[in-house]
Amino acid sequence: MTLIEQLRAIVGDANVLSGTDTAGWGEEWTGYYHWSPLAVVRPASTEEVSRVMQLASATGTAVVPVGGNTSLNGGTKAEGALMLSLARMNRVREVNPATQTVTAEAGVILQTLRDLADENGLVFPLTFGAQGSAMVGGFLSTNAGGSNVLRYGNTRMLCLGIEAVLADGRVMNTLSALRKDNTGYDLRDLLIGAEGTLGIITAAVFKLAPRPVAYATALMSMHSLGAALRLLNRIQAGTGGAVEAFEYMPHNYMLRLAELRPDLASPIAPGEVNIFVEAATTVPGEDPTERLQTLLAGAMEAGDVADAVIATSEQQRRRLWQMREAAAEITFTDPLVIDTDVALPLDRLQTFLDNMAARLGGIDPKAWTLVVAHLGDGNIHYSVYPGGPDEAVRAAIRAAIAEEAVMLGGTFSAEHGVGLSKLPEMAAHKDPVALQVMRSIKRALDPQGILNPGKVLPAGD
Amino acid sequence: MTLIEQLRAIVGDANVLSGTDTAGWGEEWTGYYHWSPLAVVRPASTEEVSRVMQLASATGTAVVPVGGNTSLNGGTKAEGALMLSLARMNRVREVNPATQTVTAEAGVILQTLRDLADENGLVFPLTFGAQGSAMVGGFLSTNAGGSNVLRYGNTRMLCLGIEAVLADGRVMNTLSALRKDNTGYDLRDLLIGAEGTLGIITAAVFKLAPRPVAYATALMSMHSLGAALRLLNRIQAGTGGAVEAFEYMPHNYMLRLAELRPDLASPIAPGEVNIFVEAATTVPGEDPTERLQTLLAGAMEAGDVADAVIATSEQQRRRLWQMREAAAEITFTDPLVIDTDVALPLDRLQTFLDNMAARLGGIDPKAWTLVVAHLGDGNIHYSVYPGGPDEAVRAAIRAAIAEEAVMLGGTFSAEHGVGLSKLPEMAAHKDPVALQVMRSIKRALDPQGILNPGKVLPAGD
After folding, report:
1. Less CB within 10 Å around the terminal CB: N or C of chain A?
2. How far apart are CA B43 and CA B61, in angstroms?
3. Does A461 lie at the interface with B, CB-CB under 8 angstroms?
4. Percent helix / strand / coil, chain B, rounded to 5
5. Is A418's Cβ below 8 Å from some Cβ in B?
6. Residue-wise pLDDT tens for chain A (461 aa)?
7. Which positions, given as ranges, span the membrane (chains A, B) (predicted)?
8. What integer is the mean pLDDT of B340-353?
9. Which of residues 339-358 of A touch B (CB under 8 A)?
């Protein structure tokens, strides 16, 4: 039997795509990466994933796991490789409101999880632009972040246990639903963020959180990032750390938004620095909006806030969220955009922006930028549109951004993962011993190197 | 040169103990484990640790890292091995109130970190009985828990980055101070909780938290665990999740406490179930005590609380804390005590206690128990005093506790680590594929098996 025939024997004829049937499976949604997969296989159960991996292992076939395919770094590029789609593993195995946990398979879409938590009077607090497509396996494998990390932590902090299939098909079941479990090495967090290079996550247990009973949501304009950070401290102190999101949209972001999404134009005159803030309470009877109003009035008196609008209905709240959530849509208008996700110590953000403006002019005078940031996390999406398609210039721009972030005590990758696009940064900036340890672990768990080959780990050593 | 001479050349004569000088280094503080180390070496810097490990690696010498030596599971037993004490690496490298982080070396004592945070208007929220002796390297290596996990998470969740020396002496520097950093595999969490079997943590960056401006602290008696869990939900909902500690002390714990520490006798008549609770606020002007009083009044009306006392001074608050903190002191009165740290889903705690009472009578009719629990985490310290020193009976008791916990969806180890004492439970209950993966990683990072040999991983494959 050919490999394709053997795959069909495992998952059924309809769930193996090859030849022209793989059209639509060879492109990243940004449009930048393109590839021709060997085939696409769509298992429906952990056991089928295991049998596919046994076959891949026996035949030395490269396997690229894929969920919603919303990667921004070439993480699912699968040239000549078998794409293993987890989309059919979309069962929610258990929701337990008493323990506030949910067990979901790798193909469950983030929005589905969020809706399910909501139906149970709880919240699954991971939220980012691609939540209508991104799947459990993908957002775990990239340790996704988003707009509520400030309050609830990133994906890693929301996950209690995982089930995964290893390179040779063995199934590891560590689906613990406990808050405390110290039985040996932390293999859960090792696979989370490994971008499918150490194993294929097939299911996970997540913590849910109590659903806030009321939100306070506002958009403010101000003159400087310093003022914005003072405001963050003011609101955190005044609400007991109840800030769920604190997002930065500079002036040119607001202009671009008004141009591409006039329906989402700003309800206030945009300043140099515009901040979207949301605070929440889980205490019945508390009014966070009143509290936020008082805090903003204080910030205005102190000269930190120029103008502000507070949402007075759920509809207004949703509209303010959409202004921020449209970031991906207004950023990825050009496949040549260089998107980054650096993070910096909070007091170095302005220095980073100033230094980059100066450096960028020297590298590519025609380049322009679009910035949006999870300010409370120090996490900036600094996107650059180069003047042309020259790969050397692109590389120089990427290198400058990473170097500048690292030099200021930051990181070149806060939440999007490494994939292919950040391999040069890994080679240049990752601690060399940590890289050696990563390679040792990769060899130990995937000695043939068949799991998502070429990703995360730069060549060499 | 002999090994001892070579060690002296690295750390200086005074910092290598051998022969009779190692007296005092051959016993766990519980008194249960005893050993004769080859020698004790006390490096003062990461570089010295690196050189010691290069030497150990070249000579195939087993190395047991040790901090405050407060392990409860034989984690520092070092029969014929070199004990590597991190106590002289006690420098706080940086405190940064702006970023709310602290960088501390492995030998810094937990209480020192707590005091330092306090001096900076912040809090380092890890707290447990041994905090006056336990050191950074040890509490990271066991992923320690304690009484504030409910609010702030365990050690893993407090740590942002680590520096570690590998088995062959290479130094891995991943001392990131960022909240978000996705640059490759999560090696930090792999070494945290590995009990020194994968590398020696020499320094770490920790998050600090805003210091509460006011606490509300109470001791309550009630009739059942069910009532206690209803009360927890009531206080969490009514304070917006501000419960810092929710600790369970049953009737016989209170009796034992009154007997051994009459100065800490209960200020209220103990019930079957006694709960220590502390809630806090970081919002200036808020009065959490008034809020707690109202919530307790409601719980009394509902029949859930029989009696309660609320601390009205810092002195009273400290005294209530001490009643709980005395647990280790009143538990480890007999080196034969079998201490455990199981965790269970919150709704299975009473079933566990009932089933264990029945099983224990069948195994050892003369055994008696002492229980104390981090109830909010489902984490029970179920200690058994066997009728005699018979090792087979001890093993049967341990096995029954682990089996009962796992059968009810819990774990045999929530926060103390595996060490030596829980190797049979690892062999019996850990997912076999996860065990294989752990062994693969151990071989990859420590091919000679010189780092804390015999711990965490049960023999066999």
Report:
1. N
2. 16
3. no
4. 40, 20, 40
5. yes
6. 999 999 999 999 999 999 999 999 999 988 899 999 999 999 999 999 999 999 999 999 999 999 999 998 999 999 999 999 999 999 999 999 888 999 999 999 999 999 999 999 999 999 998 999 999 999 999 999 999 999 999 999 999 999 999 999 999 999 999 999 999 999 999 999 999 999 999 999 999 999 999 999 999 999 999 999 999 999 998 998 999 999 999 999 999 999 999 999 999 999 999 999 999 999 988 999 999 999 999 999 999 999 999 999 999 999 999 999 999 999 999 889 999 999 999 889 999 999 999 999 999 999 999 999 999 999 999 999 999 999 999 999 999 999 999 999 999 999 999 999 999 999 999 999 999 999 999 999 999 999 999 999 999 75
7. none
8. 94
9. 341, 343-347
Look at chain B and count its residues: 461
Contact B178 A440 (CB under 8 A): no
* Contact residues for B95 (Cβ-Cβ < 8 A; gap 6+): B101, B102, B103, B116, B120
Closest chain B residue by Cα to residue A418? B183
Q: Does residue A35 contact residue A26 with C-beta atoms inside 8 Å?
A: yes
pLDDT of residue A461: 59
What's the token pair of residue B360?
A: 């224990």
Nearest-Å Rg of the Cα atoms of chain B is: 23
| Domains held by chain B: number | 4
What domain range includes position A18?
3-87
This complex has an ipTM of 0.96
Q: Does B366 touch chain A (CB under 8 A)?
A: no
CB contact under 8 A, B440 and A445: yes
Give the number of A-B residue pairs with CB atoms closer than 8 Å: 244
The answer to whether residues B169 and B253 belong to one domain is no
CB atoms B431 and A239 under 8 Å: no
Please report whether residue A397 resides in a domain: yes
Please tell me the distance in Å from B258's CA to the nearest CA on chain A.
Answer: 30
The answer for residues whose C-beta is within 8 angstroms of residue B398's C-beta and 6 or more apart is B338, B340, B421, B424, B425
Instruction: Compute φ and ψ for A324, nearest 5 degrees.
Output: -80, -40
- Token pair 């909010």 in the structure block, residue: B376
Q: What angle do CA A323, A113, A186 make, to 5 degrees?
A: 110
* B98/A347 CB distance under 8 A: yes
Residue at a domain's end among A87, A116, A137? A87
Measure A90 CA to nearest chain B CA, in Å. 24
A186 closest CB neighbour out of B192, B417, B430 = B192
Q: pLDDT, tens digit, for every residue of A237-272?
A: 899 899 999 999 999 999 999 999 999 999 999 999
**CATH classification of the domain holding A119:** 3.30.465.10
Task: Flag whether residue B200 sits within 8 Å of chain A, measured between CB atoms.
Answer: no
In chain B, which residues have their Cβ closer than 8 Å to the Cβ of A426? 183-184
Asked if A197 and A219 sit in the same domain, the reply is no
Q: How far apart are CA A102 and CA A98, in angstroms?
A: 11
Nearest to B183 among A344, A379, A418 (CB): A418
CA-closest candidate to residue B46, choices B88, B77, B6: B88
Q: Would residue A254 count as lying in a domain?
A: yes
Nearest CA in chain A to B198: A185
| Encoded tokens for A279 | 């605070």
- Residue B231 φ then ψ, to 5°: -65, -40
